[in-house]
Amino acid sequence: QVQLVESGGGLVQPGGSLRLSCSASGFSLPWYAIGWFRQAPGEEREGVSCLHNHGDSPYYADSVRGRFTISRDDAENTVYLQMNNLKFEDTGVYYCAFTDRYDYSCPTGASEYESWGQGTQVTVSS
After folding, report:
1. How far is Cα 29 from Cα 115, in angstroms, rounded to an integer?
2. What would you report as the CA-atom Rg of the chain, rounded to the nearest whole angstrom?
3. How far apart are CA 109 and CA 14, in angstroms?
4. What is the pLDDT of residues 31-88, one digit of tens each?
């Protein structure tokens, strides 16, 4: 059973930075996709970024492209989300999610992922 643990959330001022981590364990196939999603109060869960370990380019939502960077450390089985120039609208609970049902690209819809972390709160406030 795949387990995901997120960390790195917190309170930051607008323009600041945070780096989220998603540590994965319990998977057996040599390919996987990790997605980052966020959910603000009263809003639907939104896809932010994703990558596939056999894919070319990661995906970024328009709202974060140029500010967020997703990366992975295979030795640590960890995927990171570096968030720079944070804005008020980036506030929410951030979740990472896992799927091994795709052999090349990462899906962008939440329903395509089988395993989820517990979430980490990101608050952008002055």
Report:
1. 14
2. 14
3. 28
4. 899 999 999 989 999 999 999 988 878 999 999 999 999 999 988 999 999 999 999 9
DSSP label at residue 41: T
What is d(CA 37, CA 119) in angstroms, rounded to the nearest whole number?
9
- Given a cut of 80, is residue 14 above it in pLDDT? yes
Query: What integer pLDDT is reported at residue 82 of this predicted model?
Result: 98
119 by Cβ neighbours in 10 Å (0-12 / 13-18 / 19+) ranks as middle
Q: Which residues contact 3 (CB under 8 A, 6 or more apart)?
A: 24, 25, 26, 115
Residues 6+ apart with CB under 8 A from 7: 20, 21, 23, 120
Q: Which residues pair with 6 in a beta bridge?
A: 22
Amino acid at 101: R
Angle made by CA atoms 20, 117, 37, in degrees to the nearest 5: 60
